[in-house]
Prior knowledge:
Blueprint: E1 2-3, E2 8-9, H1 40-43, H2 71-85, H3 117-158
Antiparallel strand pairs: 1-2
Amino acid sequence: MVSNQFHAKPYRVxxxxxxxxxxxxxxxxxxxxxxxxxxxNNIVDNPWVSLDNWETQYSNAYLTxxxxxxxxxxxxxxxxxxKGRQPKSxxxxxxxxxxEMHLGPSLDYPYPTSGRLWFVYLLGGVAALILAIAWFNYxxxxxxxxxxxxxxxxxxxxSGAGRxxx
Length: 166
């Protein structure tokens, strides 16, 4: 039995899937078929979930493009189709590669593990700065210790120390 904003209704379990990994942006405890929404009795008083409504934002769609395809060209074609069906709408549909979903620069982040790429760059810059300071300090300390060691060797030579004592 699933009880949600539509109503309580029994569903038949047809597939059981493994839990998603913790480090995945795709998570869920339950997946329902969109075919259920074809029946007006299942929509009740929620027209925003109608499959005929192109402006619903309750789900994400994932497309698999052929290798080497330009996703921006595909995005343009999808928007042409959309504008043909919804000419009065000012909505623009966007595609985003899955590789950019976690740290992507421009789309909304409805995913539980979202991050920001600029923050990664910021932390990388801080790490590089710390390494540069540590390197500078190492060079300074090495120079000072080599000068000290040179003075020590000079004093031992003057004192008559042999090669083995240096």
